[in-house]
Structures are given as structure tokens and as C-alpha cells.
Amino acid sequence: MRPEIEQAIALLQRDDSQSLEEALSLLQNTVFSFSMRVCGQREDAEDTTQEVLVKSLSYLSRFENPKALLVWLYKVAKNRCLMSRRKSKFAPQRELSLEELMPGRQELEQLADGSRINPESFAIHSEEARRLRTAIQKLPPQYRIILVLRDMEGLTDQEVAEITGLRAGTVRVRLHRGRLFVRKQLMKTAKPRQAAAKAAERPRPARCKAMFAELSDYLDEKLDDSLCEELEKHLDGCEPCKAFLSSLEAIIEQCRKSPSECPDPKKAAKLRQQLLWNYERALKART
Questions:
Q1: Are 167 and 111 found together in one domain?
Q2: Which residue, among 54, 133, 130, 51, has the nearest Cα to 84 in the 3D structure?
Q3: Could you tell me which of 53, 146, 212, 246 has the fewest CB atoms within 10 Å of its CB?
């Protein structure tokens, strides 16, 4: 649960105009941050934020449960992002297969090589926010929504399932493939070693391939004990898979630590004042 949502609920319960504006500011920042990560365009994020706040004003007093507000808020924002996106800037709608996201024999041999990229160094090198944003923007939207909600906004699998209307199992599958896609995009900057080039056409070891589908569940501690033991046994004897897992873990951590983008303070304040003025005017008209 995002602390901003809980703070907003506490402010709304005070039932005064100052607290309402403070709550609106918290919600404004939350929606804008999410929209920027999904849309990638400030204009789309601003449009989404304005529409969500307009819709939320007349409903906010009804929310007493932070989770209910969180799910409603993200659901409206998600729908708006998908409707109003600038299509020329958005990744195409397509399904990602596990096969296309898996490393080839060449990359596995690079990872096994003693001079491979160190996962810690890779994480530091990859802190450049622009590269991460670019990789995420290339994700098909149905995967991007999941990755942003789960790894960047800090929501749980169940909350993501409620917001997207998907089954929890589908959320897990899309999350894993989204993570693998972003990792693959960021790893393209790594220079391939010529020593491994001759191995490019050889297939991946079957046992390594079987492990890849379980890596996100393993990192999120959602793998049952028997599968977890089997995977760890494999990792103990497979340096390429161990290095691959470390690089995937570094990408996930990078997503989680990615800083939120905030709306322009002057524009944000002006929007809140206009919305509150319209809202109070509408309330007076009813009495």
C-alpha cells in the first residue's frame, strides 16, 4: 500500500477545505507519476491526471478504505492512459513469448566467462533513468501496465489483479515477461565477446531453458519449496544461469528505485485551485 493513499484518506476524514486540497495534491502526484511511467509523455500524463482528479472529486468523500481508493484511482488512470496515449510513441500491442526473451547460447557463454559484466557494476551503470524509461516504453502496453504497477508503484500482485481485471496467475506471467524484456533491452548495450561468437548458433542447454520461466517467482519468494530447491541446485552448478539471475535481480531493483516524476508545481497548484473552485461552486448550486 502506498503511504500517500493512506495519508490522503486520513486528510479526507478531517472534512475541511485545506485538508481536501492536501489530499488532492497527494493523489495528483501519485497519478502523474504512474501516468508518466506508462505513457512516457508529459502531455499525456497531465491530461490523465486532470481527468482522474475531475472524476475523483465527487467520489473522494465515499472512500474510507485506502485499498479501495488505491484500486479505483489506478483503474481510472490506467484506462485513461490506454485511451489517450500518443500511438506513434507507444509500443505495439503484441504478445511476448518466453522463447524470444531467453538468452541464446552466446549470451550464456558471455555470462559464464570470467570477464563478464558484474551484476553490481551493471546495476550502477544502468542507473541512467533515460535508458530505463526507453526500455519500458518499448514494452507492449499490457505488459508495461503490470510492470509499472508492481515493480515501480510498489503494489501487490492482488492489487494489480484487481486494477487490471486479470487473474493473479496472468499477472505473474506478464510481470516475468515484462522484466525479461526490459533486461534484454538494457543488456543490448553490453558488447558481445568475440570468443563466444562461434557458439551463437548452438541451442541453449535444455535444463537452463527450463529454469527461466520460474526466475521471477523465485526472486519474489513465490516458488514452492520443492521447485525452489530444484532451481537452487541447478544454479549452484550453472554459472551462466546464476549470472543471468543476478542481472535480472539488478533490473528489478533498478525499477523499484526509479525516482518518481512530479508535475510542474505551478501547473499542479493552478489545476487544484480550479478544480476545487468548480467543485465548491457545484456544491453550492445543489443547496
A1: yes
A2: 51
A3: 246
